[in-house]
Design brief:
- The chain is an all-beta fold.
- It has no helices and eleven strands.
- A hairpin with a 2-residue loop joins strand 9 and strand 10.
- The radius of gyration is 14 Å and the shape is elongated.
């Protein structure tokens, strides 16, 4: 059984910063790509950032230059550092991991965490 447990998030003023973390645990053989998604009220879930197993990253245009995704392979943890936050960044943020268990790769999701950017 694999779990992704998220931490961080909360309420921040525009221009502020937050850091999200997502820790994977369980019978993990290896972790491939890890992603952060977000879903705002009334909108579809969208991909925010991706980090591959070799550390390559990719970002949505809306967050480039403001958000940084990173991972600590020793801790099976992925982070999302969010700077210069805007009200439009308000959403529930979810981590997602492509994780190999007993030679089978499957997708796992975190529980979601609310990020609210408001004055």
């Amino acid at each position: 059984q694999v779990q992704l447990v998220q931490s961080g998030g909360g309420l921040v003023q525009p221009g502020g910063s937050l850091r999200l973390a997502c820790a994977a645990s369980g019978s993990i053989f290896s972790i491939d790509t890890m992603d952060w998604y977000r879903q705002a009220p009334g909108k579809q879930r969208e991909l925010v950032a991706t980090v591959t197993s070799d550390g390559s990253t990719n970002y949505a245009d809306s967050v480039k230059g403001r958000f940084t995704i990173s991972r600590d392979n020793a801790k099976n943890t992925v982070y999302l550092q969010m700077n210069s936050l805007k009200p439009e960044d308000t959403a529930v943020y979810y981590c997602r991991g492509t994780i190999v268990v007993e030679r089978r790769a499957s997708i796992y999701w975190g529980q979601g965490t609310q990020v609210t950017v408001s004055s």
